[in-house]
Specification:
- This protein is mostly helical.
- It folds into two domains: 165 residues, no CATH class; 152 residues.
- 87% of the residues lie in helices and 0% in strands.
- It contains eleven helices and no strands.
- Helix 2 runs antiparallel to helix 3.
Length: 368
């Protein structure tokens, strides 16, 4: 009797294991396929997540105050998304179109000038450089013929590159517009249903409820610190850059300060895309001392604001060690570009959170 009972009880257990293995196989296969489907959209989805996280408090207040009867939140989400499009997307699109157009024009000009150099010599550079600079170049090329040969070879290379660069600018613009459309669509749904998605993720997290709540609180804390840290640092760089612009006497310091604040989020180059051309302009207009002052101001003041202020602001706001923030920011930028400024510190901080949870809880379960 006991043997029969033991045999019957072992059969359901074996069946359950078989079903679990089959389920696990199907789940892993579908997870891999889902990753292949969604992988091209990871970047726009991540940008939409950051954008919706930033404006979600506005959506919540708008929904609770003006649309209390709307259970779905469609009207409030539509209004907030529309405002985001007007304030962020439209200016970004305009700036992108202008930059692409001017970039194509510049490459075409360079191609024409470099092609003309093949016949008329270095005098063709007068379309790009001041006359005094061209005269100095001609003196050196007459003294050293190898320089003339090098310039003409560079001209041929630049002319060939200009065509490819123009096509690349056009392709990048189309990709940018596609990403922008995806970001707008994703932002609407994340703004409207973000709280439901968070609750679902909490339910499926392989953590106890208390730790799951702490995990998402940590993520929110880090994202807030990163978003506001990047914004405050960019604005600070814009203000400091405008002061330097004003000191050397260049025109429109407010406009170029705003431009530096915008470019401050571009990895590696950042504000240098503004103050380096300004210094070059001063150098070519014989304002050598002003050019040196602007370069020194950009390197020693503007760049140091980014190097010191951003990690410290994020570290204090997220309450994490400064080294972790440095690793997250630098590694994130190297891996994901501008997106890495936000995602890098978040990923590293959450990994440290799980390590700490393992140290305090899981290790006692698995180790004697």
């Amino acid at each position: 009797m006991k043997k029969g009972t033991a045999r019957m009880s072992s059969e359901p257990a074996a069946t359950s294991r078989g079903w679990f293995i089959a389920f696990l196989f199907i789940f892993v296969a579908l997870a891999c396929l889902s990753y292949l489907v969604s992988a091209p959209l990871v970047k726009p989805l991540s940008w939409a997540m950051l954008l919706s996280f930033t404006v979600y408090p506005v959506f919540r207040r708008l929904r609770d105050r003006y649309f209390p009867r709307s259970t779905s939140g469609n009207w409030a989400a539509t209004l907030v998304t529309g405002v985001v499009v007007l304030l962020l997307v439209v200016p970004t699109m305009f700036a992108g179109f202008v930059a692409a157009r001017e970039g194509v024009r510049f490459y075409e000009t360079v191609a024409d000038v470099m092609a003309e150099m093949g016949t008329s010599g270095e005098g063709a550079l007068s379309a790009l450089l001041p006359e005094r600079t061209v005269e100095k170049i001609q003196v050196w090329t007459e003294r050293y013929p190898i320089l003339r040969t090098g310039l003409r070879q560079a001209a041929e290379f630049a002319a060939a590159t200009a065509v490819a660069a123009s096509k690349e600018v056009l392709g990048s613009t189309l990709t940018f517009l596609y990403y922008l459309a995806m970001i707008i669509v994703f932002s609407f749904f994340l703004i409207r249903d973000g709280h439901l998605i968070i609750e679902y993720l909490k339910d499926i997290m392989p953590l106890p409820q208390r730790e799951s709540e702490a995990f998402f609180r940590r993520a929110q804390q880090v994202l807030q610190a990163v978003v506001y840290g990047v914004i405050v640092t960019a604005l600070s760089q814009g203000v400091v850059g405008a002061v330097g612009w004003l000191i050397v006497g260049l025109p429109s310091p407010v406009f170029f300060g705003a431009l530096m604040a915008l470019f401050a989020m571009i990895p590696l180059l950042g504000t240098a895309l503004v103050w380096v051309p300004g210094a070059i302009y001063l150098f070519y207009t014989s304002s050598t001392m002003s050019a040196v002052i602007l370069l020194a101001w950009g390197i020693l003041v503007v760049s140091m604001v980014d190097t010191l202020m951003r990690p410290m602001f994020i570290s204090e706001g997220a309450q994490v060690h400064l080294l972790i923030v440095f690793v997250g920011v630098i590694g994130g930028v190297a891996s994901w570009g501008i997106l890495g400024l936000f995602m890098g510190p978040l990923v590293v901080t959450l990994f440290v959170f799980l390590l700490d949870y393992y140290r305090t809880s899981w290790r006692t379960m698995f180790l004697p």
